[in-house]
Amino acid sequence: MAHLVKKKRYLGCLWELETVTLPGGAPTTDFQHWRISFGMQKPRSSKTKVLRGVTKEAIEADRSGGYLHKRLLQACAPQNLYGQDYYFLEYRMPEAPFTVRVKIDRVDQVSRAYDEFKTIPAKIQRRLMLKLIPRSLNPEDPIYDSRPAKTIKTQLKNRAAITRHLVDLYLDGKYKLKDLGKCMDLTGSELRREAYQVVPVHERPDHEYLVAKRDRSKKRTLEERYMRDEITLTEYNDLKDPDRRERRLASEATYPLPEPLYTCVICGEDECAQIPCMECNNRACKACMLDKFHGDVDRPYALMHHIYCLKLGEPILHENKFARKRAEEKKREKESRLKALKEAESPAPAVVAAPKPARRRSLKAISAAAAFGGGAKTSSAGNNTLF
Length: 387
Description:
It is a single chain. The longest helix has 25 residues, at 321-345. This protein has helices at 56-61, 67-76, 107-118, 159-171, 177-183, 188-198, 222-227, 233-240, 242-252, 286-293, 304-309, 321-345, 363-373, and strands at 8-11, 14-17, 20-21, 27-28, 32-38, 48-54, 87-91, 100-103, 130-134, 275-276, 283-284. Helix 8 (233-240) crosses helix 9 (242-252). It is elongated and about 160 Å long. Strand 1 (8-11) and strand 2 form a beta hairpin. A five-stranded mixed sheet has the order 6-5-9-7-8. Strands 1-2 form a two-stranded antiparallel sheet. A two-stranded antiparallel ribbon has the order 3-4. By secondary structure, it is an alpha+beta fold. The protein folds into four domains: 8-134, Ubiquitin-like (UB roll) (Roll), CATH 3.10.20; 159-210, no CATH class; 222-252, no CATH class; 255-318, no CATH class.
């Protein structure tokens, strides 16, 4: 489980941030705890281990990709594991429709998984479970190595490595000082045979090179190989003059042929596929790609490896009701904001004043107007006429 929240330790009367030590010796609070289940079955508490203090610096420091394998060996002790090229690390991000498999010996893939775990909220971290599974994806294949643990971690290729191994055996009390003194006077082949004898029986297949016969035959010259019909005249000239071989190949070079056609991983038809998979070397034909990933089919091309290459079928989609509800609320809020914005930007409608009603003149005013005007007058509205 990837913990992004810095955990605190209580020291009697104070709280202290929990830290881990980087490969260079400096402390850091940027680390994660990974909860790992061994096997393809449903995770159980008895088969779950926690790798504490996993840092990205430690992952990238071991360029051979053995950091995670060493941590797993420490976590599953006293059980033993196979080599680091035997396992996948499988996980599924929250709300993701498919799983992700990471090779534990690939530093770039493990680092990318570390960065992905950083994006997980703290409340969802407890749901994240990593699985250590065999790369064959066969549920019957064992997870743990039932063979005895190896005692020799390196190959005994030269005299210095063999001597160091014999000295370590002497310090552990498994080799006599008298025999160690005799080994110092042995020749190279005799020393290798002696080292092979002290190798444990179950590890001898890994160290057959100690007693393998070497080809000590005399190397023949190019002329002798040509006279024995081991090489042709063209091969003789190429080996004699490599620059001339380069010039000959350049003169014989032609326009490159088109890319060969492969067997389609979807329909199985031969010599029709050219579209490569994003994860492996499988190919798919144009007709299958149009049928399975285009048009009315709502399916991303990234699922080709999961469905057809790994033969795992359609991924199970997990609907998050809370996320759907939040999305609907955000959509309604956005629509209401856009509506309010449009109303604010639209011009206000013009207000037309209603006509004022005609003012009725009193009888006194009409009489006065008639006295001054000298006759009958009509009102301002045109509808009050006085005779």
